[in-house]
Write a structure and sequence with these properties.
Low-confidence stretches of chain B: none
CATH topology of the largest domain in chain A: MetI-like fold
Mean pLDDT of chain B: 90
Order of helices and strands of chain B: EEEHEEEHHHEHEHEEHHEEEEEEEEEE
Mean pLDDT of chain A: 86
Largest sheet of chain A: none
Oligomer: heterodimer
Distance between the termini of chain A: 43 Å
CATH architecture of the largest domain in chain B: 3-Layer(aba) Sandwich
Distance between the termini of chain B: 38 Å
CATH class of the largest domain in chain A: Mainly Alpha
Radius of gyration of chain B: 25 Å
Order of helices and strands of chain A: HHHHHHHHHHH
Helix content of chain A: over 70%
Strand order of the largest sheet of chain B: 6-7-8-3-9-10
Helix content of chain B: 10-25%
Strand content of chain B: 25-35%
Number of domains of chain A: 2
Strand content of chain A: under 5%
Number of domains of chain B: 2
Number of helices of chain A: 11
Number of strands of chain A: 0
């Protein structure tokens, strides 16, 4: 049993910790509805939707959120899921010697060489490919960045699929395409879904890659178009608009999480529920 | 229904020879069990018949047609896997109907056939469920139903009962045997359980280290094992094997430091057994009598333990350094003194040469 003093200290510490983490969230709840929002947490005197109206009428900001972010996010998600699913399947089922090491080498490289450090060579590469200022360039770089971890996660799912599933389908008379469509892919689906959502959320929140590779404001995703809400003359951030835009920016990811959680439940590294 | 002809089949994995020059023929409607310890090549042989493994050399003919290099789907075989391999994302109906679906059967016809097979196997009420909601015994029946549904020529079973508990296993054994009789299929059945092989098969093929040791009917193999491996693998408890030497009119049992003499009079010794030679004497636990007084043809031992199994009892006696098991068909082992004498039934003795092969 702890002494009362110890319990007071422990509770006090917990409260301080909780306040530290909850305060920004409180700000995030109140500021968007406060026409006089600042960086301090204040309950709005006359709450209104004026901030949202102003953000929604900003054509470039909305194009960034509803078009560019969606294109980049979905593109990265589909590309990564497809490549990682096939790669993980090949690595897990193939017979090439040393194939298991490959994933670890990729993971090692991708974590040792951080995205920021490799930005100059990546910029040069995309420039030489003529893909600067295109969505495809951004998507390719993001796919490249997420592939190692995606394969790693996916491999676990593939390996939890018993080989006898595929063999039973083979003996039953299925062609390789039928086996993948009817048996392997459905059983792997939770893995593809987990990787897909994880990649989408990562791409949605990515700032540096699109910021560096895109020039035209019409192509920039929402993570970058936040700068539209900086006052051009003073260079000061317009906190009330940024907070409203941040709410809009968060909603799709939250909805996606809730949808997946309701439909499938998140089962990382759990493999297949029999 | 089909006959299967296997000639000189060989398969290696790296440096390991899994199957070595196996030749085997099965007639129409025969139930053949491949029996052996793990790693003997029985499953690899089965997988080569199914087409899941390709042999390094040799050939496989089904109904006279060379299928050696054909993929599984062109062989018209059905297989039941050890883990059943039921698809967790499909209902039982879709699981059983999958072989029909990939062959392009219309949905109503598929449903009709699956329902009829499922009813026959007493799983008709489970069609809407998923494999995860079924017991082990039910899953096993679903796996069998999936194999039955597309009327393949050959059935392949890869240890289908090893994941069931003892009671269910006996039930499933009877059910499989009945099914095979009813459908009249040619079946190849892999198992490491000799009782299962004895109960189910028309023909048992005993394998060891990738080679066939002996093939024959269960009784042939039980009555005339060709070597010590087959002799000790078939029968439960296994046959007792005693190192011996024959000299003059006596057999010397060499289980310890001092050999024990036993009269050879009245024994039908094989012609190949030369005077003064070493051999192995084989005797099944049910063919030994336990005496409390010495006799001319008995050897002395000390009582080690008795086991009551209900319906039968086992007496285990230490002779020299070896334990000998005796099986008595009585509910309870009789009270025995510490020192007992064993007498072997002269009509049921086996003689094996130093190389382990039976002497005739």
């Amino acid at each position: 049993m702890k002494s009362p003093m110890q319990r007071i200290l422990l509770t006090g510490f917990t409260v301080i910790l909780a306040v530290f983490f909850v305060t920004p969230l409180l700000w995030f709840v109140f500021a968007p509805f406060n026409p006089q929002a600042s960086l301090s947490v204040t309950i709005p005197q006359s709450p209104s939707l004026a901030n949202f109206e102003e953000v929604l009428s900003n054509e470039m900001a909305m194009r960034g959120l509803l078009q560019n972010s969606v294109i980049i996010g979905i593109g990265t998600m589909v590309g990564t899921s497809l490549i990682a699913a096939l790669a993980a399947y090949g690595i897990s089922r193939g017979t090439l010697p040393g194939r298991k090491i490959l994933t670890y080498v990729l993971i090692l490289f991708s974590s040792v060489v951080s995205g920021t450090a490799s930005m100059v060579p990546i910029f040069k590469l995309i420039y030489d490919l003529g893909l600067i200022d295109t969505h495809i360039g951004v998507i390719l770089v993001m796919i490249g960045g997420s592939i190692p971890s995606a394969i790693f996660i996916m491999q676990d799912f593939v390996e939890s699929v018993p080989r006898s599933y595929e063999e039973a389908a083979m003996v039953a008379g299925a062609s390789p395409l039928q086996i993948f469509r009817d048996v392997t892919f459905p059983v792997m689906r939770p893995g593809v879904l987990v990787v897909g959502i994880w990649v989408l959320v990562g791409a949605w929140g990515s700032f540096l890659t699109p910021f560096i590779l895109l020039r035209n404001i019409k192509l920039m995703p929402a993570s970058v178009t936040f700068f539209l809400f900086y006052d051009l003359e003073s260079g000061m951030p317009q906190i009330r608009l940024i907070s409203a835009y941040a709410v809009l920016y968060t909603i799709p990811v939250l909805l996606l999480y809730l949808l997946i959680n309701w439909r499938y439940g998140f089962r990382f590294f759990g493999g297949i529920k029999q | 229904m089909a006959s299967i002809e296997i000639r000189n089949l060989r398969k290696t994995f790296g440096k390991v020879v899994a199957v070595n020059e196996v030749s085997l023929s099965m007639t129409d409607g025969e139930f053949v069990a491949l029996l052996g310890p793990s790693g003997c090549g029985k499953t690899t042989t089965l997988r080569m018949i199914s087409g899941l493994e390709m042999p390094d050399s040799g050939s496989i003919h089904i109904n006279g047609k060379d299928v050696t290099s054909l993929p599984p789907r062109s062989r018209d075989v059905a297989m039941v896997f050890q883990d059943y391999a039921l698809y967790p994302h499909m209902t039982i109906l879709d699981n059983i109907g999958y072989p029909l679906k990939v062959r392009g059967a219309p949905h109503n016809e598929l449903k009709e056939q699956v329902t009829s097979v499922a009813n026959n196997l007493q799983i008709g009420g489970l069609l809407a469920r998923r494999p995860g909601q079924l017991s082990g015994g039910q899953q096993q029946r679903v796996a069998v139903a999936r194999a039955v549904v597309h009327h393949a020529q050959v059935f392949l079973f890869d240890e289908p009962l090893s994941n069931l508990d003892a009671k269910l296993r006996l039930e499933a054994r009877a059910f499989l045997k009945h099914l095979q009789r009813e459908v009249g299929i040619t079946a190849v059945y892999v198992t490491h359980d000799q009782a299962e092989a004895m109960a189910l098969a028309d023909k048992i093929v005993v394998m060891k280290d990738g080679s066939i040791m002996q093939a024959g009917t269960p009784l042939e193999i039980y009555r005339h094992p060709v070597n010590t491996f087959v002799a000790s693998f078939i029968g439960n408890p296994p046959m007792n094997l005693l190192p011996c030497e024959i000299n003059g009119g006596s057999i010397y049992v060499q289980t310890g430091d001092s050999p024990q003499a036993m009269s050879a009079a009245g024994l039908r010794l094989p012609a190949a057994l030369a005077k003064g030679s070493q051999f192995t004497l084989g005797v099944r636990p049910e063919h030994i009598r336990v005496l409390t007084e010495p006799a001319a043809d008995s050897i002395k031992g000390t009582l080690y333990v008795t086991q009551t199994l209900g319906g039968e009892a086992l007496v285990i006696v230490r002779v020299g350094e070896q334990l000998i098991t005796i099986r008595l068909f009585e509910d309870e082992a009789p009270p025995l003194p510490n020192e007992v004498y064993l007498s072997f039934d002269a009509d049921h003795l086996f003689f094996f040469g130093p190389d382990g092969q039976v002497l005739r």
